[in-house]
Amino acid sequence: MIKVAIFDLDGTLADTMGDLMTAMNGMLRELGFPTRTKEELLTFINNGAYRFVQHSLPEAIQEDELIMATALETYSRHYAKCYVEKTHAYAGIEEALRTLQHSNVRLAVLSNKQDEFVKNIIKKLFPADLFEEVHGQLEYPAKPDPTAALAIAKSMGVLPEECIFCGDSDVDIKTAKNAGMVPLGVSWGYRAPAVLREVGATLIARDPSDIPLIYEKYVRV
Fold it and tell me: Model's pTM, two decimal places?
Protein backbone atom coordinates (compact mmCIF):
# COMPACT_ATOMS: atom_id res chain seq x y z
CA MET A 1 0.00 0.00 0.00
CA ILE A 2 1.21 3.49 -0.85
CA LYS A 3 1.89 5.56 2.25
CA VAL A 4 3.96 8.49 0.90
CA ALA A 5 3.84 10.61 -2.26
CA ILE A 6 7.02 12.52 -3.15
CA PHE A 7 6.62 15.38 -5.61
CA ASP A 8 9.00 17.24 -7.87
CA LEU A 9 8.59 21.04 -7.72
CA ASP A 10 9.34 22.76 -11.04
CA GLY A 11 6.75 21.83 -13.66
CA THR A 12 4.92 19.51 -11.25
CA LEU A 13 3.68 21.51 -8.28
CA ALA A 14 4.43 24.97 -9.63
CA ASP A 15 5.09 26.87 -12.84
CA THR A 16 8.49 28.39 -12.12
CA MET A 17 9.57 29.12 -15.68
CA GLY A 18 8.96 32.86 -15.68
CA ASP A 19 11.36 33.49 -12.82
CA LEU A 20 13.91 30.97 -14.11
CA MET A 21 13.97 32.76 -17.46
CA THR A 22 14.30 36.18 -15.83
CA ALA A 23 17.26 35.02 -13.75
CA MET A 24 19.02 33.10 -16.50
CA ASN A 25 18.77 35.86 -19.08
CA GLY A 26 19.78 38.39 -16.43
CA MET A 27 22.95 36.37 -15.86
CA LEU A 28 23.65 36.01 -19.58
CA ARG A 29 23.20 39.72 -20.22
CA GLU A 30 25.39 40.67 -17.25
CA LEU A 31 28.21 38.44 -18.50
CA GLY A 32 27.85 39.52 -22.12
CA PHE A 33 26.40 36.32 -23.58
CA PRO A 34 23.36 35.89 -25.87
CA THR A 35 20.06 35.38 -24.05
CA ARG A 36 17.93 32.26 -24.43
CA THR A 37 14.33 31.71 -25.47
CA LYS A 38 11.81 29.98 -23.23
CA GLU A 39 11.83 26.99 -25.56
CA GLU A 40 15.60 26.66 -25.25
CA LEU A 41 15.55 26.97 -21.47
CA LEU A 42 12.85 24.31 -21.19
CA THR A 43 15.24 21.81 -22.79
CA PHE A 44 17.98 22.66 -20.27
CA ILE A 45 15.96 22.39 -17.07
CA ASN A 46 15.47 19.46 -14.61
CA ASN A 47 19.06 18.48 -13.83
CA GLY A 48 19.90 21.07 -11.17
CA ALA A 49 21.18 24.64 -11.26
CA TYR A 50 24.71 23.73 -12.38
CA ARG A 51 23.55 21.92 -15.52
CA PHE A 52 20.87 24.53 -16.19
CA VAL A 53 23.50 27.27 -16.18
CA GLN A 54 26.03 25.18 -18.09
CA HIS A 55 23.67 24.37 -20.96
CA SER A 56 22.44 27.98 -21.14
CA LEU A 57 25.96 29.25 -21.83
CA PRO A 58 27.44 29.22 -25.34
CA GLU A 59 28.57 25.67 -26.12
CA ALA A 60 32.21 26.65 -26.66
CA ILE A 61 32.66 27.72 -23.00
CA GLN A 62 30.47 25.24 -21.17
CA GLU A 63 33.46 23.25 -19.91
CA ASP A 64 35.41 26.31 -18.71
CA GLU A 65 35.41 25.92 -14.92
CA LEU A 66 36.21 29.56 -14.16
CA ILE A 67 33.43 30.85 -16.38
CA MET A 68 31.05 28.27 -14.94
CA ALA A 69 31.82 29.33 -11.37
CA THR A 70 31.16 32.98 -12.22
CA ALA A 71 28.03 32.16 -14.20
CA LEU A 72 26.57 29.97 -11.45
CA GLU A 73 27.17 32.62 -8.78
CA THR A 74 25.69 35.32 -11.02
CA TYR A 75 22.64 33.22 -11.89
CA SER A 76 22.02 32.39 -8.22
CA ARG A 77 22.23 36.07 -7.32
CA HIS A 78 19.70 36.99 -10.01
CA TYR A 79 17.37 34.12 -9.07
CA ALA A 80 17.47 35.09 -5.38
CA LYS A 81 15.97 38.45 -6.37
CA CYS A 82 13.07 37.14 -8.45
CA TYR A 83 12.33 33.48 -7.67
CA VAL A 84 8.89 34.10 -6.15
CA GLU A 85 7.72 36.93 -8.41
CA LYS A 86 6.02 34.97 -11.24
CA THR A 87 6.17 31.47 -9.79
CA HIS A 88 2.73 30.07 -8.93
CA ALA A 89 1.15 26.75 -8.00
CA TYR A 90 -0.70 24.99 -10.79
CA ALA A 91 -4.48 25.30 -10.61
CA GLY A 92 -5.99 22.38 -8.75
CA ILE A 93 -2.74 21.00 -7.36
CA GLU A 94 -3.40 21.96 -3.73
CA GLU A 95 -6.83 20.35 -3.86
CA ALA A 96 -5.32 17.16 -5.30
CA LEU A 97 -2.72 17.09 -2.54
CA ARG A 98 -5.38 17.56 0.12
CA THR A 99 -7.34 14.66 -1.33
CA LEU A 100 -4.28 12.44 -1.05
CA GLN A 101 -3.68 13.68 2.47
CA HIS A 102 -7.27 12.84 3.43
CA SER A 103 -6.58 9.31 2.14
CA ASN A 104 -3.74 9.09 4.68
CA VAL A 105 -1.01 9.57 2.10
CA ARG A 106 1.83 11.63 3.57
CA LEU A 107 3.45 14.20 1.30
CA ALA A 108 7.02 15.28 0.53
CA VAL A 109 8.91 17.38 -2.02
CA LEU A 110 12.23 16.60 -3.70
CA SER A 111 13.69 19.01 -6.26
CA ASN A 112 17.03 19.47 -7.99
CA LYS A 113 16.71 23.21 -7.33
CA GLN A 114 18.86 24.72 -4.57
CA ASP A 115 17.43 23.76 -1.17
CA GLU A 116 16.92 27.32 0.12
CA PHE A 117 14.80 28.28 -2.88
CA VAL A 118 12.76 25.07 -2.73
CA LYS A 119 11.87 25.57 0.92
CA ASN A 120 10.94 29.22 0.44
CA ILE A 121 8.81 28.55 -2.66
CA ILE A 122 6.89 25.77 -0.91
CA LYS A 123 6.44 28.00 2.16
CA LYS A 124 4.99 30.77 0.02
CA LEU A 125 2.75 28.68 -2.22
CA PHE A 126 1.37 25.99 0.07
CA PRO A 127 -0.05 25.67 3.60
CA ALA A 128 2.49 24.73 6.26
CA ASP A 129 0.70 21.50 7.19
CA LEU A 130 0.75 19.99 3.69
CA PHE A 131 4.27 18.58 3.29
CA GLU A 132 6.16 16.68 5.97
CA GLU A 133 9.50 16.81 4.15
CA VAL A 134 10.76 19.45 1.69
CA HIS A 135 14.19 19.07 0.13
CA GLY A 136 16.18 20.72 -2.62
CA GLN A 137 19.69 19.84 -3.63
CA LEU A 138 22.18 19.80 -0.76
CA GLU A 139 24.50 16.99 0.22
CA TYR A 140 23.01 14.26 -1.95
CA PRO A 141 23.57 13.83 -5.71
CA ALA A 142 20.94 15.31 -8.00
CA LYS A 143 18.07 13.27 -9.36
CA PRO A 144 17.88 10.78 -11.07
CA ASP A 145 20.30 9.44 -8.46
CA PRO A 146 17.94 7.79 -5.95
CA THR A 147 19.91 8.66 -2.79
CA ALA A 148 17.83 11.67 -1.74
CA ALA A 149 14.52 9.95 -2.49
CA LEU A 150 15.57 6.93 -0.47
CA ALA A 151 16.67 9.19 2.39
CA ILE A 152 13.20 10.78 2.45
CA ALA A 153 11.56 7.34 2.57
CA LYS A 154 13.83 6.30 5.42
CA SER A 155 13.20 9.54 7.32
CA MET A 156 9.44 9.06 6.97
CA GLY A 157 9.67 5.44 8.11
CA VAL A 158 8.41 3.77 4.93
CA LEU A 159 9.80 1.37 2.35
CA PRO A 160 10.62 2.62 -1.17
CA GLU A 161 7.86 0.46 -2.66
CA GLU A 162 5.39 2.25 -0.39
CA CYS A 163 6.12 5.56 -2.16
CA ILE A 164 4.85 7.24 -5.30
CA PHE A 165 7.35 9.57 -6.97
CA CYS A 166 5.50 12.15 -9.05
CA GLY A 167 7.10 14.47 -11.59
CA ASP A 168 6.92 16.07 -15.01
CA SER A 169 10.23 14.94 -16.47
CA ASP A 170 12.21 11.91 -17.56
CA VAL A 171 14.53 12.73 -14.64
CA ASP A 172 11.68 12.15 -12.18
CA ILE A 173 10.56 8.90 -13.78
CA LYS A 174 14.15 7.63 -13.72
CA THR A 175 14.45 8.68 -10.07
CA ALA A 176 11.34 6.69 -9.18
CA LYS A 177 12.57 3.60 -11.00
CA ASN A 178 16.09 3.89 -9.57
CA ALA A 179 14.64 4.16 -6.06
CA GLY A 180 12.15 1.31 -6.48
CA MET A 181 9.19 3.66 -6.12
CA VAL A 182 6.00 3.88 -8.18
CA PRO A 183 6.58 6.41 -11.01
CA LEU A 184 3.76 8.84 -11.77
CA GLY A 185 4.20 11.35 -14.57
CA VAL A 186 2.26 14.57 -15.12
CA SER A 187 1.47 16.03 -18.52
CA TRP A 188 1.24 19.77 -17.67
CA GLY A 189 4.91 20.42 -16.93
CA TYR A 190 8.13 20.95 -18.85
CA ARG A 191 8.28 17.64 -20.75
CA ALA A 192 5.82 16.03 -23.15
CA PRO A 193 4.09 12.80 -22.06
CA ALA A 194 5.91 10.95 -24.86
CA VAL A 195 9.23 11.73 -23.15
CA LEU A 196 7.91 10.25 -19.90
CA ARG A 197 6.63 7.13 -21.63
CA GLU A 198 10.00 6.59 -23.32
CA VAL A 199 11.65 6.10 -19.94
CA GLY A 200 8.95 3.84 -18.56
CA ALA A 201 6.09 5.97 -17.22
CA THR A 202 2.91 3.91 -17.45
CA LEU A 203 0.87 6.21 -15.20
CA ILE A 204 0.48 9.82 -16.41
CA ALA A 205 -1.90 12.36 -14.88
CA ARG A 206 -3.54 14.69 -17.41
CA ASP A 207 -4.43 17.29 -14.77
CA PRO A 208 -3.98 17.53 -10.99
CA SER A 209 -7.37 15.97 -10.27
CA ASP A 210 -6.11 12.75 -11.89
CA ILE A 211 -3.46 12.23 -9.21
CA PRO A 212 -5.77 11.04 -6.41
CA LEU A 213 -7.83 9.06 -8.94
CA ILE A 214 -4.73 7.21 -10.12
CA TYR A 215 -3.79 6.58 -6.51
CA GLU A 216 -7.21 5.12 -5.73
CA LYS A 217 -7.47 3.01 -8.89
CA TYR A 218 -3.97 1.68 -9.41
CA VAL A 219 -1.68 2.03 -6.44
CA ARG A 220 -3.73 2.15 -3.26
CA VAL A 221 -3.43 -1.58 -2.62
Answer: 0.94
